[in-house]
Structure formats: structure tokens, C-alpha cells
Amino acid sequence: MSKKRKGDETSDINDDKQSTQTAANEIGSAAPSVLSEVKKTPVKASDSSLEDTLFHPNLISPLDNDRIRINSGFTRDSERLKNDNHEYEYDAVVVGAGPAGEAAAMKLAKSGKKVVVVDARSQVGGNSAHVGTIPSKALRQSVFNLINYRRDPLFSQGLDYYQVPLNKVLTKARKVVRNQVDTHTRFYERNQIEVRHGWASFVDNHTLHIELGDGLGFETITFNKAIITVGSRPYRPDLLDFDHPRVFDSDKILQMDYVVKKIIIYGAGVIGCEYASIFTGLGYKVDLINNHDSLLSYLDKEISDALSHDFRQFGVLVRNNEEIEKLETYDDCVILYLKSGKKIKSDAILWSNGRSGNTESLNLEGIGLKANSRGQLKVDDTYRTEVENIYAAGDVIGWPSLASAAYDQGRCAAAFMVGDEDAEPVSSVPTGIYTIPEISSIGKTEQELTDEKVPYEVGQAFFKHLARAQIIGERSGVLKILFHRETLEILGIHCYGNHASEIIHIGQAVMKCGHNLEYFVNTTFNYPTMAEAYRVAALNGLNRVF
Ligand SMILES: Cc1cc2nc3c(=O)[nH]c(=O)nc-3n(C[C@H](O)[C@H](O)[C@H](O)COP(=O)(O)OP(=O)(O)OC[C@H]3O[C@@H](n4cnc5c(N)ncnc54)[C@H](O)[C@@H]3O)c2cc1C
Ligand SMILES: NC(=O)c1ccc[n+]([C@@H]2O[C@H](COP(=O)([O-])OP(=O)(O)OC[C@H]3O[C@@H](n4cnc5c(N)ncnc54)[C@H](O)[C@@H]3O)[C@@H](O)[C@H]2O)c1
């Protein structure tokens, strides 16, 4: 009779596994499912058939017939690259390899679909990686570093102040773009997603024409379903001659190769404000022409005011409620005439007044679709267009026109396409504006809560009082938490200051988890940190409640 000793329970489990494995091998099922079976079946010490069995480890012999098969249930690889049951070459085609297209393609591939991505550029990444988010943020970072360097007395003594050519600071941005393209190219490769380069247009609901360029002619492919993720491009009114070397939009500005002293930025949306920060940081004088009566009027009013104040401090001349009448271009300058009668002379103009969806070249008539006047497509809650097998996501559907949301929308569109039951359309998106300093927010503004007659209260933390902010030399900045004065539910968070776009995510997570303001008071924050602003703001707000 065997004796029970330390580890007996383990030996029982192993013994049980052994016997189950033998049975499993006979019917060809996989070892891993056996292991999970073992965990579910507790072994009783009094089981007499096991008591006589000695403990021994599971020995693997390459000479026996045990083989771990790929179709064990752990992976769907075996199903990948097999078409669904239909007559077309591909289960799905994704038109556009920006964030929306990439996310859609990844989700489709992971769901076992045969997918092809078509993009007009010779590299993946979309406008986001080539001319939008990535180069502008990398450029901003270089300018931010330059500003800090100039401000720091350790480095700035004896430093000649000169205007830095945009092209010079763009060197770093180009490197980041290249790295991003490499990273995203690998994603497609690793997931065995075919990528074709050329301009796509629809022949009909199941056929795509691809113009290959470079005299290579064209090809046609057939597909069961499609996702349109063609993104957007700067809106170019006929009023301006964009071929002139002093007239730029946000794509063309990345090619500017001369130094200017003054620049007009027409359009004070997100792009206009971000570039106003970049150009003043480079030492240029900026005239920022705003069609509205305040900057980024959808933001918290105090934050919009703080941005205007800081812009003025840094030499941006903000001109509100103005509209273009005409632009004259000369070899050595441009002159902007405004409807108010003003005229502004400058070295160049950056037009940043909105974007249009890239739908013209898609031959939408071929599939019975029509875009709106801004080239955007209408979709339902599942990202399906009015044509049953055609979906759309990203900038081409309009709101919110952000890379962050485009990625989620693309993934969700594909999830709905493959019938995922838990897919949810994108609804709450944080704002992240990379001016210097940054702005970020989530939830409602004071104006919205006042209009809705919600009894809210405000908690504030000014960065200049935080130890971490003082250490890193942060001069301006504020975190505002708006909360319901009775339930303490967090209703909105608004942040102005460097790292705002990171700081906001702490609040976003807390809101999403359903915690109220007390979370920030009952949680110990690292010290010194910028995150500590949440505790300071929460206490400040609670002190107002009576
Ligand atoms: C200057 C600037 C800064 C920005 N900064 C930010 C930021 O900081 N944060 C943020 O979240 N968002 C930012 N955005 C917005 C962000 O870039 C867009 O929301 C994002 O690129 C949209 O992604 P998308 O997948 O819809 O399309 P896109 O990135 O526009 O990609 C679409 C792709 O489709 C291709 N395509 C178009 N038509 C065809 C066709 N007929 N056939 C084949 N291919 C075609 C294009 O070549 C392109 O590669 C910024 C935008 C700009 C312009
Ligand atoms: N940090 C960021 O998140 C970030 C940075 C830059 C750009 N973006 C995205 O890029 C988009 C474009 O930014 P923007 O600053 O150029 O413009 P915007 O969308 O903020 O609009 C600026 C102005 O142009 C008008 N407009 C927009 N599209 C138009 C069109 N097709 N025809 C005529 N007028 C039009 C608008 O009504 C507005 O008055 C934004 O929607 C923004 O989401 C985001």
C-alpha cells in the first residue's frame, strides 16, 4: 500500500491527466483541452484506483505517436485564407490603409476572412502617418524641445536667436514617419494580409477596379463585402492658387523649404491652432484668422480663453470673426483681404479651413451611393452604408475625424461585418489638441450642463501649485473636474497644460468604471506627479459642496 506524502495531490492530478491523455490520444483530441478537463475534476484522496499509482512526471517521447496538431482549437490559422462560401476572390476588400482601414483589415483577418487592402500610396499608414497626425505631432515635439532649450538658462546663454527653417525640424518627423510605416507594414505581413497599391474605384457592388500607376495598367478584383476607409484631404477652395509657392495647406506645408518671418494661418480649427503653436515656437510671427468669435468654441470656455491668452503672449495675433474676400499672391509675399476691410501682408499663407472626404475617385455611382457636399458617406449604427454589403469608417464618415476614433470605427465596422454580437459603435471620444500647451477633455462642458440645468459643481487644480509641475517648469495649466453636486458623478473633465492628452485618460478610466469623485480622494497618488492634480481638484470641488 502506498503512503501519502507531500505533493500527493499533485501526483494525483498528474496521474489523472495521464490516464485522460491516453484516452484523448485515442480519439485524436489535443493535450491542452485535457489539461483544462483535469482542473475541472477534483481528485478525491480516498479514490482507491489512484492510491496504488506511484507519482511520476509526464515523459515526452518523440518516438511515440503523440502529435500536437494545429487544429486543436487553440488557433484559427487553419481556417484563415479560406474564402467564405461565395463566388468572389476575397471575403472583404478594405479601401484605404490609414488607421480605420488597418483596424478593419486586422479584425477581418483575425476572424478568418480572406482580406485585401488597397491604398493609393506606395506605403501603408494612410494620411495619418504620412501627412496628418504623425508628422504634425513629431514636428510639434521638436518645436517643444526647442522652446524648452531656449528657455533654459543653462543652455540659452550666448545662444543666437534665429528662425529655424521648417524643413530642418522636419528631419526628425520624417524619421518617425518611416518608423511608423515599417511598424504598420509588419502588422499587415504578420497577419498575412494582402496589400495592393493603386487607386481603387467601384465597378459594381462586388468588383473593384485598381489603377496601378507607373504605366502598369489596371486590375480588377471581386469581393463579397467592402469597407471604405479612404479618409480625407484638405479642403481647397477655388479662391486660392495652391500651386503658388507661398500658398500652403496642411499637406503641402510639410514640403516648405524656405524660412519665413511672418505667416498667415487661415482657419483656427484644430489644425490652425496646432500650427500656430509650431510656427511661433520656430520664431515666426503668426496672424491666425478665425471665422468664429472665440478659439475652438466647443471647448470649455476658460480653456479656450487660456489658449487665446497664451497665444497672444507668444506672439500670435488672433483675429476673430473674420472671413476671406480674396488673396493676392506675389513673388515675395501674399496679401489677404478680409471682408471686414482689413488687409494683411505676409510671407506665406497656410490654409487650414476644413477637410473633404476622398470619395470622388471611388465611382460611387457604380454602387448606387452618393456622398454629401463634403465628400462624406452616411452610415448606420453598424457602419453600414445604404448599400448592404458596403461599410465605411474613419474620416470619410465625418465625426469625429480623428485617428484615435478612426481605428476604433474600423475595428467595429469589421466586427459588425463578421457578425460579432458584442460590437459597439464608437460614441464617447476624448479631445486631444496638441497646441503648446496641450488641451484635452472628455464628457460635458460647463455650458452644456448649464443648458441642461444639471446641478453641477467644479473642482480645479492649477498646475503651478503642483510640486511636479514646479520641478518640470510648468507655468500654466489647469485640471477641471465637473461633477454632480448630489451624486458626485463625474460629468466632464477638462485639462489645459502639457501632458493634458495623457492626464485625461486617468479620469476617462475612472468615469468609464462608474466611480464618482470620491475615487480621487480615497486613492493614493504617486508624489510628485501631474496625476496628483486629480486629488487636488477633487478636494477643491468637494469643499464647494454643502
Ligand atoms: C495636420 C493633421 C493633424 C492631425 N492630428 C491628429 C491628432 O493629433 N490626433 C488624431 O487623433 N487625429 C489627428 N488628425 C486626424 C487624423 O489624421 C485622421 O482622423 C485620420 O488620418 C483618419 O484616418 P482614416 O483611416 O479615416 O484615413 P486616412 O488616414 O486619411 O487614410 C486614408 C487612405 O486612403 C487612401 N485612399 C484614398 N482614396 C483612395 C482610393 N480611391 N483608392 C485607394 N486608396 C485611397 C489614401 O491614400 C490614404 O492612405 C490630424 C489630421 C491632420 C491633417
Ligand atoms: N489633435 C487633433 O486631434 C487634431 C489635429 C489636427 C486635425 N485634427 C482633425 O482634422 C480635422 C480638420 O481640422 P481643421 O482645423 O482643418 O478644421 P475644422 O474641421 O476644425 O474646421 C475649420 C473650419 O472649416 C470649416 N470647414 C470644414 N470642412 C469644410 C469644407 N469641406 N468646406 C468648407 N468649410 C469647411 C468648418 O466649418 C470650420 O469653420 C478636424 O476635424 C480634426 O478632428 C485633429
Automatic annotation (TrEMBL):
Q: How is the cofactor bound?
A: Binds 1 FAD per subunit.
Which residues participate in NAD(+) binding? G267, A268, G269, V270, I271, G272, C273, E274, G354
- Bias class Basic and acidic residues marks the residues at 1-18
The record's section on Pfam families has:
Pyr_redox_2, Pyr_redox_dim
Q: Which GO terms describe its biological process?
A: 2-oxoglutarate metabolic process
Keywords on record = Cytoplasm, FAD, Flavoprotein, NAD, NADP, Nucleotide-binding, Oxidoreductase
Q: Any idea where the FAD/NAD(P)-binding domain is?
A: 90-410
Q: Which cofactor does it need?
A: FAD
Question: Which superkingdom?
Answer: Bacteria
- Main role? Conversion of NADPH, generated by peripheral catabolic pathways, to NADH, which can enter the respiratory chain for energy generation.
- What is the name attached to this protein's record? Soluble pyridine nucleotide transhydrogenase
The organism is Psychrobacter raelei
